Amino acid sequence: MCSLMLTLLAIGSYAQPRNTSVPEILPMAQVVTALQSGSVELREFIVLTQDVQPSAYMNDGVVKIYGDHPTCFYIGISDVGKLSAEMIPQSTKLITVRIDSAPAGTGIIDLHQFKDLPNLKYVYLLATSPISEDALRELVINDKNAVIQYKVFYNFVKDM
After folding, report:
1. CA 36 to chain centre
2. In what order do the strands lie in the sheet with 20-21?
3. Is the pLDDT of residue 19 over 70?
């Protein structure tokens, strides 16, 4: 009887939903519009998202770094589950998650794992295949009590 109660208790606690929340996720154009024209922050945003930077790339669970003090970290959605915070350089300001196909499941991108990156300013969800905005938002979770110090945005790009 005691083991049955422990089993039920374990199953019940396992089935409890995580204490998570979804942060505001904005279209890239809305982030650009919100930044003041001519501001240093807007110039830095454009440089990070459009210019070549020292970068780190994760592919098949392996991180390769190009340049000193990478400011950009690129990862495919299929590698996110293999990612640990220690794999991301502390100098990272922009994390780009490339979504080439609509993944199965929700909560695949856990923002809480980025909490110890002091320079992180942006998490960019780059969708190269058809996926709805709602489905994109369902991919992202965060610890309900965590404060996000960076912006999360997305963009849909065809023919990459």
Report:
1. 24
2. 20-21, 140-143, 109-110
3. no
Query: In the prediction, which pLDDT does 55 show?
Result: 97
Residue 125: closest CA among 54, 26, 12: 26
Q: How far apart are CA 9 and CA 122, in angstroms?
A: 40
Query: Which residue carries 């912006």 as its tokens?
Result: 151
Q: Map residue 100 onto helix, strand or coil.
A: coil
- What confidence tens digit (pLDDT) does each residue in 26-41 have? 999 999 998 888 889 9
Count Cβ atoms below 10 Å from residue 83 Cβ, excluding itself. Answer: 20
The amino acid at 62:
V
Predicted confidence (pLDDT) per residue in 45-68, tens digit: 999 999 999 999 999 999 999 999
Number of residues that make up the chain: 160
